[in-house]
């Protein structure tokens, strides 16, 4: 993976699958249909300018501020995946800057040990941005003593638009764990299956998935 320097800007103007490891603030301009997989290792700010369609998957364990500017009838499927044992806040802002733009924001978090995780998810559709769609789905799974909070906000000034949000905090559903156990799967294996499914919502590149697996293994062995 490539390290991005402070205040740098990167452009994606060719179709493809890309991976980044970020440790500093960055502006990312997406000018072509791409899939982008990011690992953020520090507290930082990422600004996206989306000109076409993009799937973005970000994995982090620190504070992060993400601004997504959606332009030119573009669509973004954004996945924020956080695993932490610290007290952190993730803020994700989606700005619909043009008509007929679409944002699908999925934020999944795992809080373990005494970690306290907060998601603040904001969707903005200004007046005149007709036929725009803003969807939010946020979930935080508490594994131990930590607390969690989700603030899903929709700021919609255009009647001719669609906006939805859902939020959940708490443990995995005991009924699902029990069902898996009735199929001969141990409680530990059932929990591991749910944990993996929760964090792997899209197909991941093998080396990227390997990094995620190491983090999940650490959580399982806590």
Summarize the entry for a quick read.
The chain is α/β, with parallel strands linked by helices. It has one domain (2-172). The protein is built from 3 helices and 15 strands.
Would you kindly provide a written description of the structure presented here, covering whatever features stand out?
This protein is of the alpha/beta class. The chain contains three helices and 15 strands. The chain has one domain (2-172). Helix content is 17%, strand content 54%. The radius of gyration is 18 Å and the shape is globular. The strands form two sheets. An eight-stranded parallel beta sheet has the order 1-3-5-7-9-11-13-15, with helices on one face. The protein has a seven-stranded parallel beta sheet with strand order 2-4-6-8-10-12-14, with no helix packed on it.
Please state the CA-atom Rg, rounded to the nearest Å. 18 Å
Tell me roughly what share of residues is in helical segments.
Answer: 10-25%
Biggest pleated sheet: 8 strands, parallel
What is the count of β-strands?
Answer: 15
Q: Class by helix and strand content? A: alpha/beta
* % residues in beta strands: over 45%
Indicate the low-confidence ranges by residue numbers.
none
Global shape: globular
Provide a count of the helices. 3
Largest sheet strand order: 1-3-5-7-9-11-13-15
End-to-end Cα distance, whole Å, is: 28 Å
Give the overall pLDDT as a whole number: 93
The topology string of helices and strands comes to EEEEEEEEEEEEEEEHHH
The tally of structural domains comes to 1
């Amino acid at each position: 993976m490539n390290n991005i320097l402070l205040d740098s800007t990167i452009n994606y103007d060719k179709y493809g699958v890309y991976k980044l490891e970020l440790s500093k603030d960055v502006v990312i301009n997406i000018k072509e249909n791409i899939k982008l997989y990011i690992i953020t290792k520090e507290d930082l700010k990422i600004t996206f300018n989306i000109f076409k369609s993009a799937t973005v998957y970000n994995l982090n364990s620190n504070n992060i501020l993400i601004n997504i500017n959606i332009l030119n009838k573009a669509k973004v499927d954004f996945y924020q995946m956080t695993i932490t044992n610290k007290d952190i806040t993730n803020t994700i802002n989606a700005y619909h800057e043009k008509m007929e733009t679409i944002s699908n924001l999925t934020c999944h978090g795992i809080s373990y040990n005494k970690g306290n995780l907060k998601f603040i998810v904001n969707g903005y559709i200004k007046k005149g941005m007709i036929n725009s769609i803003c969807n939010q789905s946020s979930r935080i799974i508490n594994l131990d003593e930590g607390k969690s909070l989700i603030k899903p906000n929709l700021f919609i000034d255009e009647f001719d638009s669609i906006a939805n949000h859902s939020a959940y905090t708490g443990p995995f559903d005991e009924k699902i764990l029990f069902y898996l156990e009735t199929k001969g799967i141990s409680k530990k294996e059932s929990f591991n299956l749910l944990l993996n499914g929760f964090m792997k919502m899209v197909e991941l590149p093998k080396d990227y998935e390997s990094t995620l697996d190491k983090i999940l293994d650490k959580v399982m062995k806590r």
